[in-house]
Amino acid sequence: MATLAPTQTLDLTERFPSAVTPDARPGYSGWIVNSQNLVEFAATLRDEFGYDYLSSVTGVDYLPEGRMEVVYHAFKTTGGPGVVFKVQVPRQDPVEVPSLISVYPGVELQEREAWDLLGIKFVSHPDLRRVLMWEGFAGHPLRKDWKEPYFEEDVKPLKNRWPEGRIVQAESKNPFGDNVAYPEGFDPDESQFDPEKALYDSLRKCQVEEVGLKSDHLLVNMGPHHPSTHGVFRMAVILDGETIVSLKPVMGYLHRNHEKIGERNTFLMNMPYTDRLDYLTSMSNNFAYALAVEKLMGVKPPERAEYIRVIMAELTRIANHVWAVGFLLNDLGAYFTPMLYGQEERELILDIFEAVAGSRMMCNYFRFGGVARDVTDNVLQKIKDHAFERLPRKVDEIERLLADNEIIRSRGIGQGILTAEDAIRYSAAGPLLRASGIPYDIRRADPYSIYDRFEFDVAVRQNGDIYDRMMIRFDEMRQSIRIIQQAVRGLPKGEIQAGRPQYTVRVPAGEAYGRVEGPKGELGFYIVSNGKPNPWRYHVRAPSFINLTAFEPMSVGQKIADVVAILGSIDIVLGEVDR
Amino acid sequence: MTEEMYGKGIVKGLGVTLKRFWDTYWDDAVWLFRRVTKGEKRYHSPEGIAHRSGKDSRGIFTIQYPEEKLPSPEEFRFLPFLVYDEDENGVKTLRCTSCGICAKVCPPQCIWIVRTTDPATGRPVPDPLEFYIDVDMCMNCGLCAEYCPFDSIKMDHAYELASFGRQVLDKAALSKSATYYESVRPLNAARENAARAAKEASRAVLQKTE
What is the ipTM of this complex? Predict the structure, then answer.
């Protein structure tokens, strides 16, 4: 296991005496960097200190203090804790921060997201368009002074629900449904406005100079309702014949502003909402959110709860991976046979979740300092049956079905390659990163919960192509089975919740970043509390979303039919991409 | 293609599908034998469903909903309901005291409660005058049931609730008897009844000593 000096001993003020100050606010950590030195600072951090992996970028709107803050979380792919650095700028439009895209190209979509939702302009970002909202959207919704249609109150619980809760449905107040605001000078009926213009312009900007025979390029939209897009996802591509010249992912069709909802909610209310992020892996989502809030609260779950958490998170990983492999095969044209073989195992795992948590998909099982209810002996027996008998057998069977298949090999090997350097640069996470030869698994690199007690190998494959990204999921399932077997054997008796369960938790002021190795990659929650019952900032570092940054570099030069398989091998869930 | 395999991989994969094809008929034959000897059925019977959702399941896996249904585990949750106790004379009293915790903890804020006030004193009475749940907004998270201190709001098992319009359930529609609750969640109900009995016993002891 990699052990590194903790960040506290890292003295960045010595290296940058005039540009960097430690963040001294109570409950905060990390460094505050002058905005004009940011790019230089980041380059030094990457090249001299080895923080080569920028995992999360987000903004925070400190409305009362009149400033905006951009928060960066950087890690080393060799392991160890990360470093947090921030840039503070006055909250006056235009809010401008230099873009880090030249140092960490993986910030592309994240900076676009911060621009879209918070209105932070990243100077020198080559393609600073909105990413989740459409171009005709008025304002930046995550700003604290932005109000949505049907706005009721700033925070929940809403006052008109009790004790005088006579039901009114907000939309009935507005019979014409006219609740849309447009930007100034924008007329939806005017035909000159073309919401797609910015997208197509940026697609053409990326186009490379062609040599040889002159031929016309073709612009094709795949999706948003194309069956191969795993949801309402769209990619706009420019084709030269069948070959991809440039590609832009277009998303936001399932956007519901999860983070704004999260800031309205109390801390506990967010737990069931996290289920709906990546709706295939709700237990992992719960895990990451619980970790982040527990860091702020300073509580530690009892032993039994820790073991149960690990068992559930690993079962989730298996359920996700059989599904991911199945869908990848669907994309390759193996219509539903491997998918349904995998789904049998997933259904049986969901039976366990239903018995434990009460719901198959929207588990809402974790609580701050524990889990919601205990695992009964019947269910434990069922978990044992699966972990020791059925799952090892079935993972082998599905692998036997697929691994040597000539069609899969010829369509997978050498296609959609993401090199190790690119995987790090584009902040790819999870199986995508490990299939490119980087053995970076947060369970090992920066262990959380009780993962340091289990024996397992970090799955890694070397080629970074579609085939390796499929096979690494089999490797990971086997490791998950190993972890579950150890956890089931070691499961102690005892409490499952630290302290009495409470519906209003006291969260001290401060910030925390909790992250887990989710089935799709690093899932992180960045939470800022100001001591009130509701989080001031609630940000999700969504692996599906950030993995899409590497989608274009993987696809350019490939054939259009392979792009579908490349997307399948990334394994995205639109609930998490669009949030 | 990187190497020559002459279709060996495809044949190997087809072996898996062939085995599963064979399993389907073999398992049906095994169950035919069990039906003759023990009277157990693979389809439309509890033992058959248990077999198909168990670790040794093979062959046809599907539960033929709605002809057969997977049994709901005790913790299964779908929409809250209000529990009332019924005494010997058939008088129904809701356990709800309209304390409002469920309305405060509800993530989508779909619970609406009007508290009763005593017209003489103007003080609140521990009994809800009106109680609504906007079922279309409810996300079935179960937090209301989890944090109710009076065991009065609980999650139901009835999940076939398709309708043609928006559904807002009022107090009458939400109320269900404690006997129903015990039939749906026997273990939970037994545990809660024991805890309540212990609490009342300790209170009685306390009153006696006073």
Answer: 0.90
